[in-house]
Amino acid sequence: MTRTVIRGGLVVTASDEIHADVLIEDGRIAALATSGTPAAQAFTAERTLDATGKYVIPGGVDVHTHMELPFGGTFASDTFETGTRAAAWGGTTTIVDFAVQSVGQSLREGLDAWHAKAEGNCAIDYGFHMIVSDVNEETLKEMDLLIEEGVTSFKQFMAYPGVFYSDDGQILRAMQRSADNGGLIMMHAENGIAIDVLVEQALARGETDPRHHGEVRKALLEAEATHRAIRLAQVAGAPLYVVHVSAMEAVAELTRARDQGLNVFGETCPQYLFLSTDNLAEPDFEGAKYVCSTPLRPREHQAELWKGLRTNDLQVVSTDHCPFCFVGQKDLGRGDFSKIPNGLPGVENRMDLLHQAVLDGHISRRRWIEIACATPARMFGMYPKKGTIAPGADADVVIYDPHAEQVMSAETHHMNVDYSAYEGKRVTGRVETVLSRGVPVITEREYTGHAGHGLYTPRSTCQYLN
């Protein structure tokens, strides 16, 4: 392994900003020293990268992706190979994807299937959460075993009856188990039983367009489910992580719980911060591109999400990257919005959109790194190996040009999907070079990585508890 030194950049972590040179050795950060000092000048290496005028930041940690997910009679269009390559282009160096237990299957069968999809195909490092669809005595025992293997988080759904749905009793039992074994329950908090009634009624009235997807999945039903999940977790004495929070009413539930000192955490996604029901209402079925669950909300919800990120009532921004092509996949729902596959592409866009949010005054530079790198790594047991630039950490490092301008477009992105959710959006800031464990994956805007470089990353339990 060669030694690398990155010189002259502004190193930005969740806690510090310092003009420093970074020495990398054997795939890890070996040392940092203030640029221009004798200590920095003493760094010697075979490869020197010039980061003058640029940021040197930790690689992004995206803890919510769905590569190759079977959903709605089709599959997410990104494979582990294409999806992790696109992630690298966007400055993300670790993903945590969701292995799926189907009803009637063991957790082990689901996890093995996802290992088979990912192994040898990833450009960057990866881990797994486990979707628990079938809570029974065997499943509960398996949760303990998975934690020993570094799969320390379990996702349940209050939505999608007949597919992933768990009732309150099943949720409570899984939460009780996680209270004992140290696991973290992740919750898709929407009242799926009530939503199905509203879907049926809307279709009966002839309301079939994509915009009705957002209208039936009401913010109050996200808030109700969030409240219920919090109280079940409180009864079980377990921590809770609510995924893809989109509604201000749900943020209020999380804020109240955190004010009570509960270990309750919330994640939101770029689509809820930058897109709205205006997109779902785009004519000629274009709105189908923006169908995801939880759904996009009216624009006034965005201010509350940004506020939650500033006050730390929301801790993480992940993508929920789950792409389906407009032609051949999203159009399965022409004439019936309930048949549109739910999901948006975004794994390549997150770091850039959040940097734009820094420029727009929504968050600070360090908060950008905190919500996109450090906290996701801590929340899911990967810190400080991932999520920071410090001696001993994996050398997952991005040289980021904060002045480069770009226009987001399906013409230029690397995700395997035929549209961009941010088509035509101008942002300032762009990834220039990406190292994964010290190996250049993107080199001055050229892909120099390869499938199979990325390694499975076992995780410890949550490092973010009160």
Structure description:
- The protein has helices at residues 38-41, 80-89, 107-118, 137-148, 168-181, 192-204, 211-216, 219-236, 248-259, 270-274, 277-280, 301-311, 350-359, 365-379, and strands spanning 4-12, 17-25, 28-34, 47-50, 55-58, 60-65, 70-71, 74-75, 92-100, 125-131, 153-157, 184-188, 240-242, 264-268, 316-317, 397-407, 426-436, 439-442.
- The protein is globular, with a radius of gyration of 21 Å.
- The protein is 31% helix and 23% strand.
- Helix 5 crosses helix 8 and helix 8 (219-236) packs parallel to helix 9 (248-259).
- The strands form three sheets. Strands 1, 2, 3, 4, 5, 16, 17 and 18 form an eight-stranded mixed beta sheet that branches.
- The longest helix is centred in the middle third of the chain and has 18 residues, at 219-236.
- Strand 17 (426-436) and strand 18 form a beta hairpin.
- The chain is an alpha/beta fold and 466 residues long.
Largest sheet: 8 strands, mixed
Based on CA atoms alone, the radius of gyration comes out at 21 Å
Overall pLDDT metric:
97
Shape: globular
Give the total of beta strands: 18
Relative strand content: 15-25%
Secondary-structure content class: alpha/beta
Please give the share of residues in helix: 25-40%
> What are the low-pLDDT stretches, counting only 5+ consecutive residues below 50?
none
